[in-house]
Amino acid sequence: MFRKLRIAVDAVALSDASTFGVSSYTIGLVEALSALDDVEVLLLYPWPLHHGAAKLARVKIRHIRFAVPGAKTREWEQMLVPLLSLTMRCHLIHSPANVAPVLSPKPVVLTLHDIITYSGHSNNSPDSQRYLKRYGMPGVRRAAAIITVSEFSRRQIIDFFGIDEARVHVIYNAIASEFFACGIKRAPSRDKPVVLGCGSLAPTKNARGTLMAFARIHARYPGSKLLLFSVSPGSEGALRKLAAAAGVPEDALEFVAAPDDLTMSSVFARSDVLLFPSLWEGFGLPVVEAFAAGTPVVTSREGALAEVSGGAAVLVDPNDPAAIADAAIGMLENADLWNKMRDLGQQRAALFTWQRAAAQTAEVYRLVARKEV
Length: 373
What we know:
The structure is a single chain. This protein is α/β, with parallel strands linked by helices. It contains 15 helices and 13 strands. Helix 8 links the parallel strand 8 and strand 9.
């Protein structure tokens, strides 16, 4: 067996300004893998890193930056990642962002976070849709192993792609250490609560439901603010229109620019409650980030969110803005309940560490490598 596994990590997500959760996953995993004695990470990318450059410059990995003249799509990862994995004598490739090389001389481990990308429920660009149609499905079916982030996603992947369940491994997402450093928060004052919500316009994120629920909260607390994160560049105008239609005053809305975990954790730390009424999640990273930061959570009972929250969040019907608002108001007006949900969340968050996730991921690498010997 190999004394040290050399892994080529496809870092495409870190060069894309519009990726959020997948970027956090890639950064956190690579950082934790770098601390393992029996794993060597080579990070492969053709464009400057938009996410994680400072953090990944401090860890023990090899950066392999290569030129792709005239390339405008992700097709480089289908050709150059397999070629580089061979020339750099890697044992396998890890593709952490839902798409894997279809043809590779080295075995491929694919992290498929959920089936949303493939099921037609995401807001992919036409170029992304063409890329997925040509390479995505075959890449999933040919991967040596698939890692996903919840039992809910595992079952959906097995059913949707019709693949052997033994190839699909559940390794929960993890939380960046910055979120655990926010300290113990006290229950908020009632007059000016700060509400945090997801501002992604992806249909499954239910931005409209968040805004409609906040409009009810604002009617109760005229001094309240809604902070929106995961706002893609150029989407602010559309969000303002949605907010106005929902009855949210413009001065109550704030868009969060959080380029790194430290900045994002400070946003969670200043928030009194997270509204995350997603219609479909393979995991729901903001929920456990809020747990770690001591921010109580109102989230959906759909998808993997009940599994991931483990009783530490208030679950509601995501299609019922009144129920979402009532759950948040109930916590804001009851300090004992707010403190209870804060404490339950922080206890739950302790399960989601990158050290655990990296150790489990390395075990999948070893399993695949043993089959190749």
